[in-house]
Amino acid sequence: MLVLLADDDPAVHGAIRALLTSGGEPVIRFLEQNRLHRTPAIRLRIRELLNDRAVQRYDNEFLGFILSRGEQFDLEEAIWALTLTRFPEANISAFKAQLDAWADRVRSRLLTIATGQETLLALNHVLFEELGFHGAEADYYNPANSYMNCVMDSRRGIPISLSAIYLCVARRLSLPVAGIGMPGHFLCRYQTPREEFYVDPFHRGKLLTRIDCKRRIAQLAVEYDDSQLAPVSSRRMVQRMIANLHLIHKERKQRAEAERLQRYLIALSR
What we know:
The protein has 2 domains: 66 residues, no CATH class; 194 residues, no CATH class. Strands 3-4-5-6 form a 4-stranded antiparallel β-sheet. It is α+β, with helices and mostly antiparallel strands. Strand 5 and strand 6 form a beta hairpin. Helix 4 packs antiparallel against helix 5, helix 4 packs parallel to helix 12 and helix 6 packs across helix 9.
């Protein structure tokens, strides 16, 4: 049967694939046992089958996650759950460990720092100077720029995905940083009773004031109100991330992917 799975005739391997897909857990265990089959073509088809099965499971888990929670939930947990629906083989534990290591690198430089601005400059130096994170200006609409595993690997992303990484590192350091869903752009805000700074991760952590942000909004010919610079909930941030992806796949006429993301948007709107 495994030999037929690698047959060049689409009708043959399609029929075997359908038979294996409907076989239940015993078949899945059998495929797992043969994941490292000596024949490359068979290994590839087994991997495809197992990934498809995993994607279905992660799809259900992500939908269950967002349907069972309110406005505020663990942002990082949600982002990794979303990642697995597209990259089922992603090593999430390794990515989390990488974020831990980056936070530790920043933490070692905060021992003699007193002000919020100095703290942000230290964080920015690690992320944008040493690690090289930057905005994906050349291929802004590449879907990979919206998935955190890809952004961590390539060190480039769009405003909201770079902000997500910024938030994940900042929260490991217990810094008062929140996501700001400004019209047309996404920022982070550092705020204490004494200091307030807006951070633009897409532009290598540029520090902005509230006045700077208002000017940006005015340039968009959008009437300003205070809600535009208010922190967004975890739910609305994930919703905005998925909406970006949905638009990309819809414009590319990738119907199956657009419909998958649309299901998530409907669940998040509840």
